[in-house]
Design goal:
Blueprint (H helix, E strand, L loop, with lengths): L6 H7 L5 H4 L10 H17 L6 H19 L5 H16 L6 H11 L8
Helix pairs in contact: 3-4, 3-5, 5-6
Length: 120
Amino acid sequence: MAHDHTRRTLLGGAGLIGVGIIAPLSAMPPANRHHSWLKERASLLAYANSLDSDSPAMDAACDGLARLEKRILETPAANAAEARAKLRLPVALDGEGMMLTGNDAAALLIDIAPFLSLEG
């Protein structure tokens, strides 16, 4: 029996109708964007881990993960909460046996630098 894995069934089946999918980015409060995307990424990763690695659904899930990671990295942090959320992505990737490229890590640090405090 063949299964039709459309984007809608993949996202709906994983319960991933996240704010980033149903609302324009400008409608989200800045304090919640990166955190929301990280939560969405965690849900999608859990779903991907339940799939057969050779399935089209796995390909779609991996594409979705890449898009979320790119959005997290390329959307500038608007405040300290977003900066902290952005820092959780490389930690998550490390736990999965992956890492940012040197350029991505440098860009992330440059982005969050204004929110770092050297005071104790």
